[in-house]
Amino acid sequence: MLEVQNLTKRYGKLTAAEDVSFTLNPGDVFGFIGSNGAGKTTTIRMLATLLDPTSGTASLNGVDIVKNPLAIRRQMGYMPDFFGLYDDVMSWEYLDFFATAYEIPAKSRPKVIDEVLELTDLTVKKNAFVQSLSRGMQQRLALARCLLHDPSLLLLDEPASGLDPRARAELKELIVELGRLGKIIIVSSHILPELAGFCNKVGIIEKGHMITAGPIEEVIRSGRTSRSLTLTILSKPDDAAAWLGGQPHVEKVAVRENGKVSLEFMGTEDEQADLVEGIALAKLRLICLEEEEIDLEDVFMRVTTGAVN
User: Which residues of 168-186 are buried (b: 16+ CB within 10 A; e: fewer)?
Assistant: First the structure.
């Protein structure tokens, strides 16, 4: 389990992250969302023990990141947004170097390297030189390096940056599989629709403050301030719009060119049911009611202002 408690980082008068808190369990894939300068990378670097928090702390499986950073590093794999790959070495040599750094016994290294290459679908590139790999393959090799010591936590800072659509899809499938294996995964990204496709939890940060965090369905539900409804009514649409405009919780009523009536409903689901019942009692002859779905990107645009540190 990862427990982040009031994690704060200040640089003089600048607060890069303030009172960031959330909890993740094994198997959670956490989408960390925020504009450039919002505090995502600062938070991730503190969790990676590369930055000392000004205050607050976090613990991974009971180990405190401030009190015992070396023990944290043995449980954690970190892939920054800009990672280094050495030229003139083969993929297996690159992994062997880091396996040695992770103190994996020499007898075990070939098996471990083969396993992470298979998991990241790079077995056929085992003897290929690193500089010959495509950008997507280099990303997967960097992720393979993070998996050598079987960490319980993966910190992936903008892992899909610069990838083409196919490479992004392959990386997404790999992250989903790692979640199934029980890893705790934090993924920062600007590609919000993709995050919604494979994360089960998200957190939105702006100007160093965590605005909201939790299961993705709850975050989307909490970010909904209104419901956009479109009604198809057999009655005269102008008369229907006039009636609807006088009902509780109804705003921005408009008649579209196709004769349908659109509106914003500000009430609860029960109050929306009351509205539909009222339409029937008013004999407006409703034949279809459509509700526009909102996604993670809609929520992000609604709850953030674009402010940065």
Answer: bebbbebbbebbeeebbbb
